[in-house]
Amino acid sequence: MKRVASILLTILSALYYSPCFAQEIIAKPMPFFSDLTSNEIWDIFQDNTGYLWIGTSNGVARYDGYHLQTFRNDYRSPHLLTDNHISDFAENGQYIWIGTRKGLNLYDRKTFQMQPVPDKELCQKNIECIVSAKNKQVWVASEGIVYRCDSLGNILRSYRMREVLKTKSTSPVINSIYEDKSGTIWALLGKDGLCKYDTKKDTFIFFTGMIDIDYFIMFQDKNGRYWIGSWGDGFWRFQPESKEGEYFIPCPIMNQKSKKNEELIYSITQDDSFNYLWVLSYNELYALDITDDRKITPVDIEDKVDTHKMYTRITKDREGNLWLGSYDMANLVSFDHSGIRHYSVPQLKKDFGWDTNILHLCMDEEDVVWLSQDRLGLCLYNLKEDELTYANLSGKIQEINLMMKSYRRMAVWISDRNRPHIMRLVRRGNTLVTDYELMLNSIQKNCGNVTQLLEDAAANLWVMTEHNLFIVPSNHKPILCKDLRQIEVSHLSMDQTGNIWAISTSNRVLRLQLDDELHVQQHSAPFSTTPEESAQFSCIDYEGCLWIASSSGLIFKSDKGKDKFKLVSFDGALDDCTILKMLIDKQYLWIVTNKKILKYNLRTQSFLDYATTDPNIRVHLFRGQAACSDGVKGIYAGGHNGFIHIDGRKDAPLYNTEIIPEVTDIKVNNQSIFFEREPAKNTIHKVFLSPNERNIEIFLSSLEYGLQEKKRIAVKLEGIDKDWVYLNADKHSAFYNKLPKGTYNFRIKYADEANNWTECVSPLVIVQLPSWYETWVAYTIYFLLALGIGYWAQRYYLNRLRKKNAVKLKEELSRVMDLSTQPKAADKKFLQQIADIVKAHLEESEFNLDHLSKELNMSKSTLHRKMKAITGLTPLDFIRNIKMKQACRMLTEHELSISEIAYALGFTNPKYFTKCFKEEFGMTPTEYQSTPRPPKEDEA
Questions:
Q1: Strands (E), 563-693
Q2: Given phi > 0 = left and psi -120 to 50 = alpha, else beta, which region is 384?
Q3: Contact 253, 241 (CB under 8 A)
Q4: CB-based burial of residue 145 (10 Å sphere; 0-12 exposed, 13-18 middle, 19+ buried)?
Q5: Could you tell me if 470 and 455 are in contact, meaning their C-beta atoms sit under 8 angstroms apart?
Q6: Mean pLDDT across the chain
Q7: Helix H or strand E segment including 371
Q8: In what order do the strands lie in the sheet with 621-629?
């Protein structure tokens, strides 16, 4: 059988090689390769979230597009993995399954913790391959046994391949396990054959009709075709549904250097762009085009990818990129769908040794580009023939300042850099002929150099210099000249109907009409309210709206009538560059800057940007004069290192909306709380920060690795950020210095290619734990202490008040008792008479001032004046003092109750008595009874 296969291989190889050419394949070294702990990459795997897992001979690393997180056994964590030599990956549920030479590990994606598989049988075995099946079960091959496990790592059943083979020989080698699109599990057992899993019998059975090859790897392409790579027997097409004898078809791959067929095939995948099969052999990397007639044709990728590295594995990620692991230098292969083509014009380097540095560029009707090369001058470049012709303008023009396509066929207008000189050149084949030439200073002296050229629909040329505006009619005479200081014109633009509009020096819109004379009509209010803001560039779109790029880098757009302006936001995309030119082509506005080109869709109001830092943009620096429309929605733009063509009709999506940004890490004081601390209760959706932790940095990534620009991301920490914070393109983290205690929701949103913002569903919850003095236990202690202090303060205050009132009472009693001794003898007798009368009527509640004045036989007014003069008290106050003094005596004797004392003193209401007593002495009768009695000599 092998002899027949060898003959077929030889016959087919003679007809085999018909190279194709792939222009949209871009390869570059893996961005993280130099940061790996070992350059020996054995496997690369992408999980469902989007992280890349790189298995090496010295540990495993997780890559998020910016950083590597390494897991390996060392002196800090000697038992993190069962072994540092990684063999394979799989994913099931919340776990990443990591196979090593000495056991199986599970990485918990929620808690970021690594642990050995719970089933001890798999802890020390050499794990050869792992497959996560569609039914959530995991198949593990090790040392001649296939294990079927549940999602937690427990073995459900083991299948010894020696028993399947029904041989007593040593355990067979299991090269790989593969699950096809229908869910069938296949086991490739090398020379022992090909098996598939029978779900009904729960066992592996041999596939009938096998050929004698060393089965190593299986792959099923998008059309359902099976391919088998063998170890020493070449590349085969496997057709299990065909009739017997046609199951296996040889597909030889010839190595063009050795002129021999490749025999060792060990890794296969298929790209999503061209549907090529990418095959790794022991000698070389191949891209194979599968034609309808079942032939495979090699694709010429030699100038795109280094095919002779020591590659170990091919992995395709969810964006369609191919990751090529290797022993020496791993590569990332991406596929460009942007419609961009680069022209480096290598002939310049070959002929003169200069780098291509294009200063001016315009396109004529026959795919010929007019180029102005630095230090060299004007050249013609034929796009179809890839041919460069040098123009000889010696004596005609010193150095080109401006270049503009003319309405005349195959003609351009150019101006001189150092003098007011214009000319029109016409191309006849590769020869340039001067069609018109004019020295402007022959018409107006001291007019200055040319600053703008514009040819209107009537073929009139408008030439603006530093001081004058010249209009050259289509018949080239006569020439109209206007002083710019009189008409205040600073920049010209033309609308779709051929009308000329200008921006004035006062930032107003002017309409210019030309008949025999130039008529200038002021049209609108200023486009900017800032006097320092001036127009640098302007253009008019298909709706008649005027677009203005200002001197400070802002973009203004008018309404259709050009009466009102509004500021157009580009979400900071223009903040880091300088606007050099604006072009309108069909439905797109093109903004050319030194670092990038923006393509703004006038209908959807969305934009794409093409930056010099993008892998598919090979121009290092753009120049404003080296940009022109291609007439069909696209643009040619050049500068240092050549020029590019962006096909505006080919709109590749800027973003994959299914890819959602993720929080990849959180660092506090530059230490990861997930990977550099002891295991805690932190998860990917909820983290806890210790009290007083500062310098909190939250890292994010869109987990995209291809040519497309990564998603624009905005973040908001509720309770801290008042509004959304939009991250710059070069920033992928949010920083917070110190969070007050509490719970915060960290929200993320991202923009799609139409600039529509979508918020991620599951926010990150951050819990800032309180300090010990902010806990409920501390607050309880604070409350109890406050109660104790309040109680003590109240007792202290009442005690002080009692003492103070006792002193006051003593003084008041002394003063009342001594009233009769203070006046003169006659007055003393009068007061004693009053006291006796009051004492005689103590129990009479009706006794009042009228009764007292009658007893004394004098009028109430006389009594009042005399009492006031002697004692300073009114008669009623004197009466109450006598009653209160009597009350004090009675209270100290403790013979009567307070109510009885009140009635004995003529009070009808004991409560009123208590009120009067407190007003008099500052304490109630009860409190008075509890105070120490003053000495008797003071009471006498």
A1: 565-568, 579-585, 588-593, 596-601, 606-611, 621-629, 635-640, 642-646, 662-668, 671-672, 686-689
A2: alpha
A3: no
A4: buried
A5: no
A6: 86
A7: strand 368-373
A8: 340-343, 642-646, 635-640, 621-629
Half-sphere exposure of 159 (CA within 13 A, CB side): 25
Instruction: Give the pLDDT score at 809.
Output: 63
156 with 114: CB under 8 angstroms? no
Task: Tell me the residue type at 853.
Answer: S
**What single DSSP character describes residue 309?**
S
Give the number of residues written for the chain. Answer: 940
Helices 860-871 and 875-893 pack at an angle, to 10 degrees, of: 60
Residue 647 is predicted with a pLDDT of 87
- Phi and psi, residue 929, nearest 5°: -65, -30
| Tens-place pLDDT, residues 635-671 | 999 999 999 999 887 655 545 667 889 999 999 999 9
**Residue 108 Cα distances to 84, 111, 114, 331, 762, angstroms:** 18, 6, 6, 28, 18
Strand partners, 313: 325
Q: What is the reported pLDDT for 591? A: 96
Report the C-alpha dihedral over residues 204, 210, 212, 215, rounded to 10 degrees.
-50
Cβ contact 80:72 at 8 Å:
yes
pLDDT at 923 over 90: no
8 Å CB contact between 612 and 618: no
* Range 662-774 has CATH code 2.40.50.140: no
Contact 436, 425 (CB under 8 A): no
Q: Provide the residue type at 764 as one letter.
A: L
List, for residues 124-135, the tens digit of each pLDDT value: 899 999 999 999
Looking at the chain, the whole-number percentage of residues with pLDDT higher than 90 is 51
Q: Which residues contact 665 (CB under 8 A, 6 or more apart)?
A: 64, 67, 69, 672, 674, 675, 699
Residues 151, 152, 154, 160: is their CA dihedral positive or negative?
positive
Contacts of 417 (CB under 8 A, 6+ apart): 398, 399, 400, 401, 449
Helix 875-893, helix 825-840: angle, nearest 10: 60
Residue 587: Cβ within 10 Å count: 15
Q: Which residue(s) pair with 609 in the sheet?
A: 598
> In the CATH hierarchy, which fold is given to the domain comprising 788-939?
Arc Repressor Mutant, subunit A (1.10.10)
pLDDT band at 5 (very low <50, low <70, confident <90, very high): very low
Peptide bond into 935 cis (omega under 30): no
Q: How far is CA 658 from the centre of its chain?
A: 15
User: Where do we find the tokens 């096909």?
Assistant: 647
Cβ-contact 412, 406 below 8 angstroms = yes
44 membership: H or E segment, kind and range: strand 41-46
Amino acid at 848: N
DSSP 8-state symbol, 714 = E
Select 2-335's CATH number: 2.130.10.10, 1.10.10.10, 1.10.150.130, 2.30.30.60. Answer: 2.130.10.10
3-state secondary structure of 898: helix
Q: Tell me how far apart the alpha carbons of residues 117 and 108 are, in angstroms, rounded to a whole number.
A: 11
- To 10 degrees, what angle do helices 875-893 and 849-856 make? 100
Distance between CA atoms of 97 and 105, rounded to whole angstroms? 6
Q: Among candidates 309, 223, 320, which has minimal Cα distance to 24? A: 320
Domain map (residue ranges) of the chain: 2-335, 662-774, 788-939
Would you report the helix, strand and coil content of the chain in percent, each value rounded to 5? 20, 40, 45
**φ/ψ of residue 560, rounded to 5:** -65, -30
d(CA 180, CA 850): 122
Report residue 167's pLDDT band, with 50, 70 and 90 as the boundaries. Answer: low
